[in-house]
Amino acid sequence: MSKPKVLLTRRWPASVEQKLQQLYDATLNLDDHPFSPDEMKQALQHYDAVCPTVCDSLPAEVLNVPNKRCKILGNFGVGYNHIDIAAAKQQGLIVSNTPGVLTESTADIAMTLLLMSARRGAEGDRLVRAGQWSGWCPTHMMSSDVTGATLGLIGFGRIAQAMARKAHHGFGMKILYVKPNPADPAIVTACHAERCDSIETLLPRCDYVSLHCPGGADTRHLINADNLKLMKDTAHLLNTARGDVVDSQALIEALQDKRIAGAGLDVYENEPQINPGFLTLDNVTLLPHLGSATIATRTAMGEKVLNNLAAFFSGEALPDRVI
Ligand code: DGY
User: Fold this and answer.
1) Alpha carbon nearest to ligand 1 atom 2, residue
2) Given this structure, which CATH class describes domain 103-286?
3) 242 CA to centre of ligand 1 in angstroms
4) Mean pLDDT for each 10-residue chunk of the chain (323 residues)?
5) How many angstroms does the Cα of residue 138 sit away from the middle of ligand 1?
6) Is 284 within 8 Å of 278 (Cβ atoms)?
7) Which class is domain 5-101+294-313?
């Protein structure tokens, strides 16, 4: 019997690409270019399984292509807001993702952004590289304390909980969170976390606010001009969730007017395009969507996709089925 035809839309760590090639009639994207909508449509017509990533857009217009061969989208990533899930469901596609394995590395990047924003790390690095450092002095580049400060988490799923543990046990931070349903009592007790009943009641109490909700229509511009005004002018906003959770223009204006002290971003509206307003600001730290970018995590993400494909092609229940 011939092997199923599987396509990876981007390069993966070599070890998982090799495993995939042993198991399937696999096609790799050797030059790692982002797929156009037409290429994605052709992929859906020619492969049994297509494995997209967060950088691939799969709207209804692409998913509804006629004469599809594809039965499963094995997404390389936990977030799937780049896939129109309603359209995929309507087309009878199965979608899987990679939860769990990127929790710690993404929480580490959120902590990195928190520390960089608080202590003006990127700004200091730019200053030294530009040859503009004239030496230590008592008032140079003063910044904000992290240890003992209050961290507000918007969303309290796996990644937010990992951040809560790091921030509370590593830096003695007070943890506040908002979440539609009460959280697991074990993590609440372990981190002495306090639930707030709304974003509006959480924001004014925080020195740092970190976003951990899913992307998509329900959370688009959850952080906007109105609720940015509720933050302390000494506070910092951190986003490792999805770019469109924050109204970029409103954030740029808040940072320009020093209505908040700083922001640290790993994700952007319309990434990889960056709103040029961010680029001239010293009080924003900009990372290129590095949340899960460790060798071990990206390898584990690939392994998860392989497990989901294996289950699908052997008719078993998928470990990480979205629909
Ligand atoms: C995800 O998995 O959704 C991240 O944003 C990319 O690793």
Assistant:
1) 77
2) alpha beta
3) 9
4) 96 98 98 98 98 97 98 98 98 98 98 98 98 98 98 98 98 97 93 97 98 96 98 98 98 98 98 97 98 98 98 98 98
5) 41
6) yes
7) alpha beta
